[in-house]
Amino acid sequence: xxxxxxxxxxxxxxxxxxxxxxxxxxxxxxxxxxxxxxxxxxxxxxxxxxxxxxxxxxxxxxxxxxxxxxxxxxxxxxxxxxxxxxxxxxxxxxxxxxxxxxxxxxxxxxxxxxxxxxxxxxxxxxxxxxxxxxxxxxx
Length: 139
Description:
Blueprint: H1 6-12, H2 23-35, H3 63-71, E1 78-81, H4 83-86, E2 100-103, H5 117-130
Antiparallel strand pairs: 1-2
């Protein structure tokens, strides 16, 4: 957001900015960003917040899940395999190679409350882990 022109262009294209250094600010940023979206727009959250150094799935942040519960939005668990080999963390150099995107079944959030937030996070994480192949593409 702070990069001249680029940040403004992202804002105008309705990207949601999250300040991960401050929980209250990040929650406010998610709410404000969601309010700027047109009706029916899809939202993509990267539940880990960032890519891990070792390529293994880390703990999930709760902001996207709380938003889904608050707004009654379904969650579509998506697992991405092979991207670490194509673009290693910290690198700006792409390597040729395949990437697999595995889309799980939607998880309806209508029966969840904030008291059951952890259950929703764990259910989603379990589905993503079940589709995760750290060795993709297998040789």
